[in-house]
Amino acid sequence: MNIKMVYEYDINSQLRDKLQNLLVECFPDEYPKDRIYFKQLPHFRFIAIDDKNQIIGQVCLDYRVMNLNGKPIKVLGIIDLCVSNANRSMGIGSLMISEVNKFCENKSVDFLLLFADNKKLYLNSGFKSVDNECKWLKINNENHTTSGIGKERIDELMVKEVGNIKWESGTLDLIGYLY
Fold it and tell me: HEC states along the chain?
């Protein structure tokens, strides 16, 4: 198996179709059938490819500044990590998280951040659940428009410190959309 980094603007139609199939397979009730992102294009992805050149997993990454209690923080957001049904429970998700961790070494990233329904993989990879009041830009997924500002505590919020700043309780302004 090989894990490669792909910038979003380098994805051609053939790769796009393979990613679309994987995302719909992994998120059948939630994922849009006409694109390879949920609300906004990520900056890049890590894609897991097996020995037969089949895409068996992927994770999207979004780099941006957020505001934690009035202070800017640099966050690499983890979005839509998924592994094909036939390849689950083989450590591929953990390998992709490990690849993200390696990517962050010696880079200007304070935290990895994600929202997870199933937290087991992330807890095992050093993430912790946090209880911050969140503020974000609401996006209407169907017509790509802004529909307001959301503000609430989100139980699925998880972070991992990868820089020199400690995570604090309080208010997190995503300064953008919710992954």
Answer: CEEEEEEHHHCCHHHHHHHHHHHHHHCCCCCCCCCCCCCCCCCEEEEEECCCCCEEEEEEEEEEEEEECCEEEEEEEEEEEEECHHHCCCCHHHHHHHHHHHHHCCCCCCEEEEECCCCHHHHHCCCEECCCEEEEEEEECCCCEEEEEEEEECCCEEEEECCCCCCCCCEEEEEEECC
